[in-house]
Amino acid sequence: MNLSAVGASIGYTVFLWWFSTGAILWLDRRPQRFHRAGFALVSAVAAASVIGLGLSLDDASPRGAVLGFTAALGLWGWHEASFLMGFVTGPSLAPCPAGASGWRRFRLAAATLIYHEIALAVTLAALAVFSAGHGNPVGLCTFGVLFMARLSAKLNLFLGVPNFSMEFFPDRLRYLTSYLRKSSGNALFPLSMVAGAAVIWIESRGLSAASARPYVVVSQSLLLALTALAVLEHLFMVLPVPDSTLWRWALPASPDNGRDQRALDKR
Fold first, then answer.
1. Closest residue by Cα to residue 49 from 22, 61, 67
2. Which helix (H) or strand (E) element contains residue 224?
3. How many separate domains does the chain show?
4. Alpha-carbon distance 170 to 184, whole Å?
5. pLDDT in tens, 82-112
6. Of 38, 103, 126, 191, which shows the fewest CB atoms inside 10 Å?
7. CB atoms near residue 101 (< 10 Å)
């Protein structure tokens, strides 16, 4: 195993995850009049990412693995920005009614972001179709890891977790916090952690093989690091340390955060 390649791949993943998340949060916090320009910039990055994904499909080399991984993150960033900026959300913009529970609460929550979820699922399906028969599926795998991790996170937040940072929600989407629940835990959370650990174990098997090709070492290192970061994001839901601390530079303090946190504590 090439330890330098593993270390470089992991370091690149951590930096790109941290910086790209912060950049999207920072853009979203700009005044409303700058959002169209900001979204146009993110859309240009997404267009370049689509081209990059196409170029990476038949490049089963370390360079191709990094290109596919980076392009998939760029495409994912477009979806995140379109949601946080309010361009692609759902048909409902209403907070959760008092007393709503069970299936009704789930249905109302789904209506607030269903267009976003459909867009993500369609993108994942398109990547699966276009990646079929090619030698470098890193772009597809990267988007798949992000898709499953984010779906798990949303369900856990809906069912109830001990901690969550309200600062990730801009004012225009603050109504979404009414669908979150603060509790000691839920039955899905341990299953999410076990699933994440299982994926990390599977990804690490390719790295441990002495005969692993450079492409396999780099691609598996990138995916393993991304999966580990997804597990870390889940752990922040039960740890007393808010994950927003990692992006303090992109999240200006808001006087409403304390009020919203107290309201969530009562749910």
1. 67
2. helix 214-235
3. 1
4. 26
5. 999 989 999 999 999 998 999 999 999 999 9
6. 103
7. 8
